[in-house]
Amino acid sequence: MKSLLSNTLEIRITTHPPAPSISLSPSHSVYIVGEHVTLSCYPPDSYKAKGIQYFHEGKEIHSTTHVIYTEVRSSAGNYSCGYWIETHNRNINSMASDYVTIVITNILPPPSISLNPFHSIYIRGETVTLTCSVPDGCVANQIQYYQHGRVVQARLTDERTVMFVISTNNAEVAGNYSCSYTTTKFSRSINSSVSSSTNQDHLPSS
C-alpha cells in the first residue's frame, strides 16, 4: 500500500548576476602621494543592486563609493567590485568586475636654483645667469623658470641643468625667481615641487 504524497517543495535555480563595471576618477596611469582617487561601481541598468562591495587585493571593502587617499602606500594595488541583489528572500552576489590598478609615486623633489654672478644687488646693464639643477637620480623632460610665480621660460630638455640668462637693462626683470621640472612616469607628465626662490634686484639708472 502506497502512502499519500508529501507536500511539494519547489527548487528554483538562478545564476549569478553579471559583473558590474568599475572606474577611477580622475583616471591616471600613476598617482602622486597626496592625491586622491574615487572608485565607482556600476551594476547593469537592468539589475537593482541592494548593495555594492569593493575589493582591494581580494579583501572586501564595504562602501557604496569608496574614496582612496594615496597618502598611505597601502592604497596602491588592484581593485575590483561586485554587487548583490535580493531575490526570493536571498541575497545573491554578482560576478566580480574587472580590476583597475592604482600605482603611486612619490612627490618629485624640488630642483635647486642659483645666480651667477651672485650679488645682493645688481647694477642696471649687468647680465645674470640663473641655473636650475635637477636632483641626482631624477630625470627631466622640461624645466620651467618662474618670476613671482609666473612662468617666464619653459624649455624641453633631457639635461639635468638648464641656464636662463637675464639682462638687467629692463627694470621689469627684478624680483624673485624659482624653477621646477617635469618628468614622465607611466605616460603621465608630473611636475616637481618648486625650488626655493632667489632674489634678483638691480640699482636704478642714474
What does this protein structure show overall?
- Mean pLDDT is 88; it is low at 202-206.
- β4 (51-56) and β5 form a beta hairpin.
- This protein has 2 domains: 21-105, Sandwich (Immunoglobulin-like); 112-203, Immunoglobulins (Immunoglobulin-like, Sandwich).
- It is an all-beta fold and 206 residues long.
- The chain has strands at residues 21-25, 31-32, 36-42, 51-56, 59-62, 66-69, 77-87, 90-93, 100-102, 104-105, 112-116, 122-123, 127-133, 142-147, 150-156, 161-167, 175-185, 188-191, 198-200, 202-203.
- The termini are far apart.
- It holds the Pfam family Ig_2.
- Residues 20-81, 111-195 form the Ig-like domain.
- Keywords: Disulfide bond.
- InterPro entries: Ig-like_dom, Ig-like_dom_sf, Ig-like_fold, Ig-like_Receptors_ImmuneReg.
Could you provide a short overview of the structure?
This protein is mainly β and 206 residues long. The protein is built from no helices and 20 strands.
Number of helices: 0
What's the total number of strands? 20
| CATH C-level of the largest domain | Mainly Beta
Give the terminus-to-terminus CA distance. 130 Å
Q: How many structural units, i.e. domains?
A: 2
Describe the biggest sheet?
Answer: 5 strands, antiparallel
Radius of gyration, whole Å: 30 Å
CATH topology of the largest domain: Immunoglobulin-like
Give the name of the CATH architecture of the largest domain.
Answer: Sandwich
- Our estimate of the beta-strand percent is over 45%
Helix and strand composition category: mainly beta
What is the fourth-level CATH superfamily of the largest domain? Immunoglobulins
Mean pLDDT: 88
The dominant shape is rod-shaped
Order of helices and strands: EEEEEEEEEEEEEEEEEEEE
Helix content range = under 10%
Return residue spans where pLDDT drops below 50 for at least 5 consecutive residues.
Answer: 202-206
